[in-house]
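User: Now give one protein:

AI:
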Amino acid sequence: MSRVLFLLIAGAMAALAILYGLRIAQRSSNAAVTSLLPRETVAFAHVPDFNRTREQWHQSDIYQLYREPAVQDFLSRPLSRVPKTNAVSQTVREIEQLDLKDGFLALTSMGNEPPKIVGGFRFRGSQEDAEKVIGRWRAQLSGTGPATRRETVDYQQHKIEMATAGPYALATVYDRNWFFASNDANELKASLDRADGRIKDQKALFNADEAFREAMA
């Protein structure tokens, strides 16, 4: 009896330890992302682990209900009118290939000027391998027409790729196993400065420099 009780207590303690570890990891991941953003950030969205989130979605009650034969039969007619495309499936496969983590999108300013947006994510593998996928995404976002002006800007040992078409701009850069993008070059440079430790806002809402450095490792 005492052996069974011991095993139950040990199992409960192990479960609590795992839960605590997951929460700490989630908190560190969230802090690593917010450390890249200015204190006056308006709003941001964060996906710590795309593949895990997708698996959790497939296990959710809503998805299981969606997969029910009766629901699929009900939706088959309206869905048949929607043009079929492989673009979404291809993008999902590419995200899985990159093993995308800590994906975020933030609105950092929306005053009298055009809103400033910055986003990014961590990826698995080398920058060269990642560029095979990210390069296609960049081309789709910035356009490939003759009106798009492209240039490379050197900044603090980084290569910022700039694409400008009229009033629209897209600035992108790699920083080790991170990829960042913004519609404002100065906003992107500020994120790089925070990532590399050149800006340390002591009044920031999250003091997460160490957490970010762990995520960069």
User: Anything to note?
Assistant: The longest helix spans residues 2-34. The beta strands are 43-49, 101-109, 116-122, 149-155, 158-165, 168-175, 178-182. The two ends are 47 Å apart (CA to CA). The chain has eight helices and seven strands.
